[in-house]
Write a structure and sequence with these properties.
Order of helices and strands of chain B: HHHEHEEHH
Number of domains of chain B: 2
Distance between the termini of chain A: 54 Å
Structural class of chain B: mainly alpha
Radius of gyration of chain A: 18 Å
Radius of gyration of chain B: 20 Å
Number of strands of chain A: 0
Shape of chain B: elongated
Number of domains of chain A: 1
Order of helices and strands of chain A: HHHH
Strand order of the largest sheet of chain B: 1-3-2
Largest sheet of chain B: 3 strands, antiparallel
Strand content of chain B: 5-15%
Oligomer: heterodimer
Chain lengths: ~110, ~160
Amino acid sequence: MIILSIILIITGVFFFFTATFGLLRFPDFYSRLQATGKGDTLGSLLMLAGLALYNLSSGISLASILVSVKLLLIAVFIFIANPTATHALTRAGQDAGVEPWTKEEKSK
Amino acid sequence: MNYIVTFLILFANWLIWSGMFDSFHVSLGVISCGVVTLMSHDLFFENGKFQFSYITEFIRFALYIPWLIYQIILSNIHVAYLVLHPKMPIEPSIITFETTLKKEMSIVAFANSITLTPGTITMDVHDGKYFVIHCISRKVADDLLSGEMERKIARIFGEN
């Protein structure tokens, strides 16, 4: 169980890493948001699931189950809040007239 | 009816977050959930009325979540590949398409599912049916335009 939770947390960290890497590498505002807004969703889900599992591995009781349920509820909250925030940011960018980068422009 | 359902949902959340089951804390929970229910019983549901179809919608939505997580994992791996690839083969594009969904709730669920899957962001929804989507590469745009997600959402909320 501990090994499984370690695997989950490491995969979560990996997705956080790619999200940050994408933030630094991608060319414009919108594609940078693609990288960060999204890598976080799966990354935090995996890490919270790993933590919930790790918490259960020390002994299953009512209190530890409640803590795990709370950890998973944080994941549910992120799943609702993260897309909303990403959408609000792209919409603000669109309203402010930020031009999206496209491959054709680069070759000109 | 919506008093009872609102109260039950609030009280279930109270029990989970407080984690204490002695009579003092539970009665505190009953009092505060009761007050909040009196103030906000008409905010919780569409049109302020509870309908039994919400229960089936909720169950179908819960069954949809594992599929959504599977899609998120697949497209997250795709985005990770794009990020780590030395040449960074991204082709950002903005596509607009028309949806057949009509209910407000299903449009919200669809737009949020699109934003949740990596590689696609809902930038705007105008007139309740034209979605403006920013895609990071050709593959995610094709996945989206195949319309599988839209069909699943339509089935959840009892459309078509």
